[in-house]
Structure formats: C-alpha cells, structure tokens
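Why does residue order matter? Because the sequence determines the fold. Keep that principle in mind as you read this record.
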Amino acid sequence: MTKLRARFAAGAAAVALAGGALFGTASPAAAAYDGHCGHTEFCLYYNTNWNGGLADFGGDISNYSGYAFWGTSYNLNDNSASAKNMSSYWDVHLHEAANYAGAKLEFNPNTSRSTLGALSNKGSSHRW
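Structure:
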C-alpha cells in the first residue's frame, strides 16, 4: 500500500509540473494588463483626458471583448475615450473593429490623445 501511494504521489507531481510548464507562463500582453500604464505599454482610458478606468497592454489585442478597464466592470470594447502610447520605439494602431479591421487611429511613439475623435467609444482592437 505504501509503494502504491508513493507511485501515485510521484505521478501527480509529474502531472503538476507538466501542467505548470504548459500553462504557468503569461504572455507579455497578459503580464502588462495590471492597471499601471508602464513605459512600454499602450493604455486606454474610459474617459477623456486619461481619466476613469485604465486598460494597459504590452502586445497586440485582436478583440477587446472580454477585457474590462482595470478595477471596474466596464467592458473595454467600444468604450475608450482617450489613450497613450508609452513606447519609445513602436507605433500603435487603434482599430474600430475586431481583428484590426475598420477605421484606425495611429499613435506614434510617446504619443497621448486626450480624446479619440471619430474613434471615441469605438475601438475594438490594436496592433503594434
């Protein structure tokens, strides 16, 4: 009985390690989504003038559905009113539709927009 328990424990440990290797690492975009607009991120705000809820990303997001502004229940899709590109090197394109489709608004490196003009409350994806 003791050998059986030892084998079971060893097998369970191996499965846990394999699962951690497959699922334990976060993508750069997921890691950036922390409610802090860092120096390499694209940040969207619920209100104009960089107020209200914040959503911050370090990579491409093809569809904002399923994302909320950090610390709120407000859905990000079609709800952002201002934004910042905190990268010093890369342009970011905010797209009206999911999968980088529709009208787009370009943010050069280190660019902020206190309002999003025609894309205000219409952004659904972005790409670096």
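The chain has a mean pLDDT of 83.
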